Amino acid sequence: MKKKTILTISIFLVLLIAGTAAFLIFSKIGAGPSKVYIKTIEGKRFQLVAGNSPYIIKGMVYNPVPIDKNHEYDFWSDARKPHMVDGELMKDAGVNTIRVYQPGRHVKSTKDTIRDLYNIFGIRVAMGHWLGFWEDPNYADPLFRERIKKDVLDMVRTYKDEKGILLWILGNENNISFSYGPQAANIWTTDEIEKLNDPFLKRQARAKFYYSFVNEVAKEIHKVDPNHPVVLANAELTDIDIAGDATPDIDILGCSIYRGKAFGSFFREAQNKFKKPVLITEFGCDRYDAALEKEDQKIQAEFIEAELKEIQKNTFNGTGVGNCIGCFVFEWTDEWWKFNENDSDRWNIHDIVPSWSNGAYYFDIKAPQNLNINEEWWGICAIKKKVSGLDERMPTQAYFKIKEMWKQSMMKP
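RESULT FIELD:
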């Protein structure tokens, strides 16, 4: 063989090896997305596909606020890296996705966290945006809409190429701002809406403004990022008739569902009214019995087990409706700040005072005034203050039940 030919082959081999090494390094750092999309099966059944494989979301709502802190805490930037401890526990329980309500304050630490979760634990991130819900919102105001839309698109441009990103979630129960009532929050209106005499018509008017805005944002996201679906995060199926007509560019309907052990007609109703895949963006059970005034891990595990079985039944390979692509358990750890978020002296107290009532959680509905929901006891991991370092994570019975179900055959694509 001539020396020139040998030299040419040698150079080719060197370049091939170098290129392979570069590819592996590029893949390892978590850059460069693979397409995530919805596959329709038999007309009405839906399957999420990620990395060219069927993907059922086995998720956790993740906001690991430490004892002594409140919602302003930014876990992404915490030098103690709580996600490294939690990632190990979540991976061991079969969790493949976390839901976060917003990215961190600093881009680098947020990207580093996304890459750690994906590269080390195989956990993807469903990235959320509040859509200005806690900023005195007015979804009929053009200036407000433009400002929030710009912020969302900046977020998408910043993180869309991270391999660990699964999808985008817009809002979180923002439809509770449409009307007055015990569960309403951040009510907004316009002079034109207030001229309407019928409360129902007022609600419909607000809903049309809001859902049209969500669709505008989703449409722009698709232009910037064609690789990840967009989710509308609603409270229950309330206002879904309007949402269905107003949001053709939404890919997935997300709903927070707190109906106790069963979802009732949810999956069938969603199929009939929205005709797109559904994602349970929040569900679960608190583990404090307000009637007996004591912790009850068993009842939390019992409720979550029943809910997970029903979710599995309604995935594409189940025997139910087939429109569910997965779920997010609410939530990973307890949040000790929630009972009175304005009183910092109580952020180091695990309050047992219930905040509201929900008869679907029948086990303690006989509590005084039927107030049976304890906001600070929803974690499937309890937390305990340590002298230094992260709060200790103490997995509950619900954690081990989820591990048993998700590590075995349940909810496998």
